[in-house]
């Protein structure tokens, strides 16, 4: 445990030397978090890989921590450490499973077309309707969505009514405590990204996913048109995807 004296020394003189003294005092916490999730990570990743990434998050947490906000450092650091680890896991999945930029673009086209049809039809479009709108056959459409790496990008993995982070945990058939922990941390990471949206975007997501309002009802509550709510929703979704992909692509470029 790091003493208040050492923290005060760092706050008064933010040198790398003082920072590293605090980092050394919390390396055990990185190992603790890695051990809790290790059995649920993809094959091929070692504990040392994850500890290295977690240490990057720890350094960032020390540099950004502000006790004035009233949070315990461990609580704040947990988000940064696990966020760094999960970003690395996504990078590993994306690079190791061979998702090309062309394939990534195609997946995004499917998601955007699905959202567009949903708003136009005021219901969830069928596979056939989506495929037709994309000028592709249903077999090719299903093949794309059945590839397991698509889950990294496909909207419902992060943004369905059960995973958006506004709703209570439900039984999703999780078999181990490690998997349960991993899912909760994914939700925490998503909620951190949601905080970067503006207030109106956050409100629209909350009403749409948690309270299951449609765009017309949300518009009436916020005194905005239905089409405007649709635009806000779409922009919020794109912003969240950008926040996730910005970090992943940055890691790929750095390692490339």
UniProtKB/TrEMBL annotation:
<keyword id="KW-0804">Transcription</keyword>
<dbReference type="InterPro" id="IPR007627">
    <property type="entry name" value="RNA_pol_sigma70_r2"/>
</dbReference>
<dbReference type="GO" id="GO:0006352">
    <property type="term" value="P:DNA-templated transcription initiation"/>
</dbReference>
<feature type="domain" description="RNA polymerase sigma-70">
    <location>
        <begin position="214"/>
        <end position="240"/>
    </location>
</feature>
<dbReference type="InterPro" id="IPR013325">
    <property type="entry name" value="RNA_pol_sigma_r2"/>
</dbReference>
<dbReference type="GO" id="GO:0016987">
    <property type="term" value="F:sigma factor activity"/>
</dbReference>
<dbReference type="InterPro" id="IPR000943">
    <property type="entry name" value="RNA_pol_sigma70"/>
</dbReference>
<dbReference type="InterPro" id="IPR013324">
    <property type="entry name" value="RNA_pol_sigma_r3/r4-like"/>
</dbReference>
<keyword id="KW-0805">Transcription regulation</keyword>
<protein>
    <recommendedName>
        <fullName>RNA polymerase sigma-70 domain-containing protein</fullName>
    </recommendedName>
</protein>
<dbReference type="GO" id="GO:0003677">
    <property type="term" value="F:DNA binding"/>
</dbReference>
<keyword id="KW-0731">Sigma factor</keyword>
<dbReference type="Pfam" id="PF04545">
    <property type="entry name" value="Sigma70_r4"/>
</dbReference>
<dbReference type="Pfam" id="PF04539">
    <property type="entry name" value="Sigma70_r3"/>
</dbReference>
<dbReference type="InterPro" id="IPR007630">
    <property type="entry name" value="RNA_pol_sigma70_r4"/>
</dbReference>
<dbReference type="InterPro" id="IPR007624">
    <property type="entry name" value="RNA_pol_sigma70_r3"/>
</dbReference>
<keyword id="KW-0238">DNA-binding</keyword>
<dbReference type="Pfam" id="PF04542">
    <property type="entry name" value="Sigma70_r2"/>
</dbReference>
<dbReference type="InterPro" id="IPR014284">
    <property type="entry name" value="RNA_pol_sigma-70_dom"/>
</dbReference>
């Amino acid at each position: 445990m790091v003493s208040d004296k050492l923290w005060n020394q760092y706050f008064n003189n933010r040198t790398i030397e003082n920072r590293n003294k605090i980092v050394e005092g919390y390396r055990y916490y990185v190992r603790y978090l890695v051990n809790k999730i290790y059995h649920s990570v993809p094959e091929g990743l070692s504990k040392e890989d994850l500890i290295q990434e977690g240490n990057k998050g720890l350094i960032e947490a020390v540099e950004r921590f502000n006790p004035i906000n009233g949070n315990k450092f461990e609580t704040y650091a947990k988000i940064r450490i696990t966020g760094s680890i999960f970003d690395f896991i996504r990078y590993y999945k994306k690079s190791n499973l061979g998702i090309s930029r062309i394939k990534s673009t195609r997946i995004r086209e499917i998601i955007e077309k699905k959202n567009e049809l949903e708003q136009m039809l005021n219901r969830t479009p069928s596979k056939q309707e989506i495929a037709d709108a994309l000028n592709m056959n249903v077999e090719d459409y299903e093949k794309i969505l059945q590839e397991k790496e698509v889950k990294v990008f496909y909207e419902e993995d992060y943004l369905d009514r059960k995973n958006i982070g506004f709703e209570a945990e439900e039984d999703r058939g999780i078999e181990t405590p490690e998997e349960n922990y991993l899912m909760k941390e994914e939700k925490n990471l998503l909620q951190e990204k949601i905080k970067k949206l503006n207030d109106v975007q956050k409100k629209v997501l909350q009403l749409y996913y948690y309270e299951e309002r449609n765009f017309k009802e949300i518009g009436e509550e916020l005194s905005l048109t239905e089409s405007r709510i649709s635009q806000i929703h779409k922009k919020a979704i794109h912003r969240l995807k950008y926040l996730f992909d910005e970090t992943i692509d940055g890691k790929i470029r750095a390692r490339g």
